[in-house]
Amino acid sequence: xxxxxxxxxxxxxxxxxxxxxxxxxxxxxxxxxxxxxxxxxxxxxxxxxxxxxxxxxxxxxxxxxxxxxxxxxxxxxxxxxxxxxxxxxxxxxxxxxxxxxxxxxxxxxxxxxxxxxxxxxxxxxxxxxxxxxxxxxxxxxxxxxxxxxxxxxxxxxxxxxxxxxxxxxxxxxxxxxxxxxxxxxxxxxxxxxxxxxxxxxxxxxxxxxxxxxxxxxxxxxxxxxxxxxxxxxxxxxxxxxxxxxxxxxxxxxxxxxxxxxxxxxxxxxxxxxxxxxxxxxxxxxxxxxxxxxxxxxxxxxxxxxxxxxxxxxxxxxxxxxxxxxxxxxxxxx
Length: 333
Known about the structure:
Distance between the termini: 38 Å
Helix content: 25-40%
Radius of gyration: 20 Å
Low-confidence stretches: none
Strand content: 15-25%
Structural class: alpha/beta
Number of domains: 2
Shape: globular
Largest sheet: 7 strands, mixed
CATH superfamily of the largest domain: Type I PLP-dependent aspartate aminotransferase-like (Major domain)
Order of helices and strands: HEHHEHEHEEHEEHEHHHEEHEEEH
Strand order of the largest sheet: 2-8-7-6-5-3-4
CATH architecture of the largest domain: 3-Layer(aba) Sandwich
Number of strands: 13
Number of helices: 12
CATH class of the largest domain: Alpha Beta
């Protein structure tokens, strides 16, 4: 599996195909907060100097409080994608890797490029002693499927008995009602958290690894010094201290608006996780193209041609634009 994974975004490419300036497109292809909080002041020294230990420690402590990770001190990384690239180094190459699928495609790609055998499973019961590592995206992208802490804790214990790791990706966990796994102290549990999705600042490329110190120490060594920029650490420290409920309420309002628009257009929503909704539509390819002609980008899936994922629109004006585009679409008879 050497080909690149197709992700959301790509407005510039869509504009080349369908016209218009990229800044005039409505990007609903990604699952991030469309209404980010105001950017906090960034000290001049964060730009001028390499990030020192004091700046990193402040961000780690702020992340510990925000993610409620207890004894676990989150490690900042330059986006959770960087952590995914390191996961193959942890597992026994003689064992298989289990990934609850379908899900974020970079997991399978990273392991397969490292020469590891990957099993795409649909149930936690399919994961056993053959597997040196298992990945559960919770809630899942793109289906929104979620497992309880009890189910995941039982899986962690089962894997621990055979020397395996459990990776729980909570990139969309800030919008879930389930408790986070981050505060658990299972020595074989690794939790990945994304900063950019909830705060709507994906461009800072920041994530956190929450795991046993022996794991975060290895990740830090593998990433090398100054892996995360000073401005990113400064932004995270400031925003982690803000009222999360205000941001959460705004996202909830935007998600409710999206649900109303999709329902009003007669589309069948089959999943979602607060920052996106998944729709099943027989004419999904045609609908995607129709929306592109209106300069609205959604997310297609090559492995599920009847699926379209819709991210959140930023305001009422964008809602009306999406609703009008859907109203003008004609399904094939």
